[in-house]
Specification:
- The chain contains 4 helices and 6 strands; from the N terminus they run H-H-E-E-E-H-E-E-E-H.
- By secondary structure, it is α+β, with helices and mostly antiparallel strands.
- The chain has a single domain, classed as Beta-Lactamase (2-Layer Sandwich), CATH 3.30.450.40.
- The chain has a 6-stranded antiparallel beta sheet, sandwiched between helices.
- A hairpin with a 6-residue loop joins strand 2 and strand 3.
- The longest helix has 16 residues.
- The protein is globular.
- Bound molecules: methionine sulfoxide.
- The site of methionine sulfoxide (SME) has 15 residues, from helix 3 and strand 6.
Length: 157
C-alpha cells in the first residue's frame, strides 16, 4: 500500500486540517506504539519542515528519547529540566518563542530558536511529550498547541 503523504498548502490551520485525517489513516489498524510515533513524527516533519519533531517517553522517572525526525538529540531528560521536563512536571503545553530566554533550556541543536512541547496523557498521567523545535524565532502559537494536542491524543499509548 502506498503511504505517500499529500503535502497541503495554505494557512497553518489549513495545513493541520489536511494533515490530521492522513495521520488518522496512518494510525488506523496499527497498534505498535513505536511505529505510530515514528509515522506521526515523519508526517509532521514532512508537512511543516520543522528542525526537529519527536517524542520523549517517561521511563523510570526520566524522559527517554523516542522516535523522532531531525538532528541527533539528547537521550535522557530529568523531570523539571528543560522545556520537555518542565512540560512533563507541569503537565501542560509550553510554547517557548525564544529558547534563549527559557531558563534551563536544553540545547540539543544550536540551530533551535523556538519550541513547543505537548504532554501526552494516559489515565491522567503524563506518559510522553511531543517536542517540536524550529530554527525560526516565535514560530509556535495557540494554533499549533490546539492541533498538536489533538494529534498527540490520536496516538494510542
Ligand atoms: N530543547 C529541549 C530538549 C530536547 S531537544 O530540543 C530535541 C528541552 O529544553 O527540553
Amino acid at each position: 500500500m502506498a503511504e505517500d503523504l499529500e503535502i497541503a498548502k495554505g494557512t497553518k490551520e489549513e495545513q493541520y486540517q489536511a494533515l490530521i485525517p492522513q495521520i488518522e489513516g496512518l494510525l488506523t489498524g496499527e497498534t505498535d506504539l513505536v511505529a505510530n510515533m515514528a509515522n506521526v513524527s515523519a508526517a509532521l516533519k514532512e508537512q511543516f519542515g520543522w528542525l526537529w519533531v519527536g517524542f520523549y517517553l517517561v521511563k523510570e522517572n526520566e524522559l527517554v528519547l523516542g522516535p523522532f525526525q531531525g538532528p541527533v538529540a539528547c537521550t535522557r531528560i530529568k523531570k523539571g529540566r528543560g522545556v520537555c521536563g518542565t512540560s512533563w512536571a507541569e503537565a501542560k503545553t509550553l510554547i517557548v518563542p525564544d529558547v534563549e530566554k527559557f531558563p534551563g533550556h536544553i540545547a540539543c541543536s544550536s540551530m533551535s530558536r523556538s519550541e513547543i512541547v505537548v504532554p501526552v496523557f494516559k489515565n491522567h498521567e503524563v506518559v510522553a511529550v511531543l517536542d517540536v523545535d524550529s530554527e525560526a524565532l516565535g514560530l509556535f502559537d495557540e494554533t499549533d498547541q490546539r492541533y498538536l494536542e489533538q494529534i498527540a491524543r490520536l496516538v494510542n499509548f
